[in-house]
Amino acid sequence: MPIAFDEYFRDGSGVVINCLTWGPPSRVLVEWQLVDTQEDLSAVTFSVERSEDDAFSKFVTLKSGQIYSDPHEYMDSTAPFESLHRKLYYRVRASRVGDPDVVSAPTTWYGNPDLIGQEIINRHTLLVDTITGSPFVYWKQRTFGPRCGRCYDPVSKRSKKSCTLCLGTGFAHPYHDPVGVWLDKDVPQEMLRMTQFSQTTTTQRAVWRPMYPMFTAGDVLLEAQSGDRSKIESRKVVAEKRGVPIQQVLILELMPRSSVTKLLDVPDAIIRGLVDTLVAERQLRET
Q1: Whole-model pTM?
Q2: Model confidence over 54-83: pLDDT tens digits?
Q3: Are residues 125 and 249 in the same domain?
């Protein structure tokens, strides 16, 4: 029986567009969400397509790949922004051999891009990535895909936190491969007031960075210098401009060492490689 691909797009579209920088270089973040499914999506190809007009201009494919080799977001760094008032339209296509394609509704960012907001994002990114940030290793939690066959209950839709297969996420492939990221551990008081966060225990703390990557609750962070591993309890957008997030504060909960969290361990060489890449990029910006 063919899979109904349209069920994979939340509310029929589920595509969110954020204009990150206003050229050059220009960057547009395309994100899409999938509804909960137990189907194996490894045979599904997702393609990101772009057009200058949602009705009259031809859509061109920017990126195409399988779900596990390409997380459900795409950074378009080739957006042609010669005109300050140009809008680009994006859509996501789901394809599988033997079934008809399903295409999301074309969408764009809301309102005209705000040059002031984009400049704020650029400056904050430069600040954190080159001066104030500390190196972290980041595991993004999966939110779709085959469910854990060991502990997931399809009736209650619950999984066990102690499961050594899904690590409590309920998914057979719980996290994407780790990446390096800079985070600022010195959160300004005005940001903390907006999150209503008060550190009541030694296992909680807050960090911040500009809007990309967009973290979510359940993601895992490893501080490279201390080796502490934390789970993101919540993410708060503390500043935005014309609906575009500018700053985000992450509330972290220290993860105790256990048989489950040990499964997230990766070789020291990989951690060093990710951190070395971050440092090399910082040094390149300084030159």
Answers
A1: 0.65
A2: 555 578 898 887 654 445 778 888 776 654
A3: yes
